[in-house]
Structures are given as structure tokens and as C-alpha cells.
Amino acid sequence: MNRSMIPLPDEDHECTECGFSYGALDAEGAAEIIGGVPGRARSAALRAADPRRRPEPQTWSVLEYVCHLRDVYVSSTIRLHRVRTEADPALEPMLNDLRTRRFRHNELDLLPVLTEIRLDVDGFLDEVARVRTDGWVRTASRLPGERRTALWFVRHAAHEGVHHVGDIERVAAATS
User: Are 135 and 150 in contact (CB under 8 A)?
Assistant: First the structure.
């Protein structure tokens, strides 16, 4: 399955898998959740006996999920900056599976990537702090019909953190 072009969730999305509700959070609440992601990801990832082992060929390893989380916060920082500074920008997709293959995520060392997540989350939160009160309604799009607000991008970054920490926990348990 090509996960890179799954449609973006709606502004008021409720994830049936992890229970995350976009509409239940303001930017401050989402930022608070995001701030806890690096510690939770580190704790979950370090429980894996072999962070490179995939439980199934189509399921990422713990290391690949950790790299994806890092990439989420790098991309989210750039996206939020563009929403904040440009008029309705069109954003590139992350191309998650391509990144995983081309950048050989499963060949990296876990501890440095966990450190990068902390730094990248800090950078994202710096960008969140730069959004003015009237800036939360600014929009961007990725695919046709996918116009999303700056507030959505912060909520989505929080959801990605919560959801993928859960993925890391499940994969670590399944491969240990």
C-alpha cells in the first residue's frame, strides 16, 4: 500500500485506531502533547529487542517508525512556516514509504534518531509559538480539495506523535 498519498484527515477528525480527536484540542493543548512525544517515543523504542526487525514485510520496524516521527516534525515545521508566511501554499506530500526506502531508515542508529526527534519537536514548537492569534485560520493544501488550517497542522502533528508512539509500542512488543 502506498501510504504516501492517503488523503489528509478532516479538520475535526477522530481517529478510530488511537482515539485522538482533533476537535478536542486547541493549539496550546496540541503543543503540550507534542512536547511529550520525544520522551514517549524514546521509552517505547528502547523496549524493542531489535529495532530494525519488521513484524511483517508491510509493517515498518520500530526504527522506521522513529525515523518517520522525526520526519513528521521536520515536515510539519516547514509546512506550518509556509502556512504562516505564504498565502494558501500548495504543499508537497511527505512520500513516507519512499523516504523510508531511499534514506535507508532501517540502517540508521536508533539513539541519534531519538535525539533528532527531541530537537525537531523543539523546532516545531518554536514555529507554533510564532503563529499569531489571527494566524490559526490561515490555510494550505496538498491534494485538490484538501485545504487545511494552521490549527489543523498542529493538531495533526500531535495526532501523528500519539498514533506513531502507539505503533512503536505495538511493533516493539511484537518483535521482542
Answer: yes
